Every structure is written in structure tokens, then in C-alpha cells.
Amino acid sequence: MRAPITKAVIPAAGLGTRFLPATKAIPKEMLPVVDRPAIQYVVEEAVEAGLSDVLMITGRHKASLENHFDRVAELETLLAARGEHEKLARVNAATNLADVHYLRQGDPLGLGHAVLRAKQHIGHEPFAVLLGDDIMSSGGSLLKRMIEVHEQTGASVVALQEIELDQISAYGVAAYDTSIPREQGVVGPDTIQLTGLVEKPAREDAPSNLAVIGRYLLRPEVFDVLERTAPGRGGEIQLTDALEVLAGDPEAFGGVVGVVYGGRRYDTGNKLEYIKATVELASQDPKLGPDLVPWLKSFAGQLTD
């Protein structure tokens, strides 16, 4: 009987240069999506999947991340005195979400290096990695499925999504065992057995149209592999390179299984996608949606006139 997986790592040390000057003084993870920062959606997703121990890998000028998930006693007292209990509940929700820890990455040596920094905190347990730029419309259901696949196979698990080939060079791309029919899968039709990964290939070199998106369920052996992984593209230690090793030696490392995600993914690290995420999630909000959706239809009509 395996112990339940409870730990998640969220790399959050990036500078957010695509959003300058907004991110000159505010971490990109703290940019609001409707009424809460993007990073809160990611932590909520982890908690919904049963992961109660969250380690954020941060950098300089990220103190507001820690402040957001900490108590603000004077604000709580003020809201309580005013009888603004709904606001107080929303403030306390962030504080009580999970047991959140923080560790600085130090040198900005890539995603693989950020994950490696978590080694001491994680120990010898499987754990999840959630990239803070991606918000999943399905909440924690994708992570729950990945945990289930890990429990069935013992493998590391990555989330995949079908991507248009003209965008494929922006992603790590999966090569997979085509001898296993896609309708059958490894443990269901949404799963494939990875044979390798290619980081940001040219369109003509991409082994498939299945791109790795920002969710991983990793066996602890990944730390040993990362320690031996040389810097790759951009002089950084790439997590994709380590996953390539895990996928190539299933006997030693359990292999890598991909879960193909069919839900909506919001890439809040991209300006246009960030705006789309804000509009779509606001449209789904029971308080904002009834007024916002008719206005959006009217505005869209004006654009086509």
C-alpha cells in the first residue's frame, strides 16, 4: 500500500519580463485573474487534488507571494468589525489553503534546477510539479487523474495536450510508443507510454503534436537524474532532458506515462492568453457573468460593424 502523495512543488522564480512594466515591482504570479492572483488558482488546484504540502521555489522580490498566503491580522480585524464576513472568508481562504513553504532558487538555471532545489524538502516520495503560469479549467481533476495513473503504473506522469504544429516549437514534445493503440492506452485511452521528449523542436522535427504542459507527477529518482543533467538549451538545466532519461530507461526509473488533457488550459504567462483567462473566468463567475456576458456580446458586435 503506497503512502498518499501530499507534496507539490511550484516553481515561481521567473522575472515575468513579458509583462513589463507591470511586473517591475509585482511578481507575475501575483497578477490578478478576476479577483485573486494567478498563483492562488494553482495552489487551489493542488489542494483539490489532495496535495496539502506546497513548496514554492522563489527568487528575489517575491515577498508578496509569502505575504498573500500569510495572515494579515489588522485586515481580518477590520473586516470583522465592519461585518464584511464574505470578504473576510475570501481573505482567510488563501491563508488556510495549505501548508506553504518557500525556498529561493538562487541562480536562475532553469526549470530542472528549480525542481532539484526541492530535493531536501521532498525526500524519497513521489511529488507533483505545477507551473504557475498554467491554470486548468478542470481544477484538480487533471492532477487527480495523474496521481491515479502513477498509482496504477508506478511511472512518472506528465500532462500532455494536442497543440497546433505551427505552435509546437514553443513546447517540450512527446515521442510515444505507437505499438500501443491510442484507443486502448496504457491504463485508459487518455494515456500513452512515452519513449522520449524533445525540447522546443522545429515543426518538421516534432515527434508528435502532443506537448508537455505545466503539470508533472514525478518519482524521486528524478533528483538523481537532474544532478547529472548538463545544461541544455539556453544554458539551463532542462526538466525535459531529465524526463528523457526517465522515459528511456523504464526498468531503472519506472518510465514516463503521458495523460492527454482535453480541458481548457489558460496560459497566464502569455499576454493574450492572460486576457482571455480573465474574460472567460469572469464570464463564468455567478456574480459577474450575468452582466459581463451581454456586454461582451454587444462590444463584439460593435467591433464587427
UniProtKB/TrEMBL annotation:
Enzyme class: transferase
Protein keywords: Nucleotidyltransferase, Transferase
InterPro entries linked to this entry: GalU_uridylyltTrfase_bac/arc (IPR005771), NTP_transferase_dom (IPR005835), Nucleotide-diphossugar_trans (IPR029044)
Nucleotide-binding is among the record's keywords: no
EC number: 2.7.7.9
Reaction catalysed by this enzyme: alpha-D-glucose 1-phosphate + UTP + H(+) = UDP-alpha-D-glucose + diphosphate
Nucleotidyltransferase among keywords: yes
One example GO MF annotation: UTP:glucose-1-phosphate uridylyltransferase activity
Domain Nucleotidyl transferase per the UniProt entry, residue ranges: 7-282
GO biological process terms, semicolon-separated: UDP-alpha-D-glucose metabolic process
Stored SUPFAM superfamilies: Nucleotide-diphospho-sugar transferases (SSF53448)
Family: Belongs to the UDPGP type 2 family.
Name the UniProt record assigns to this protein: UTP--glucose-1-phosphate uridylyltransferase
Originating organism: Pseudoclavibacter terrae
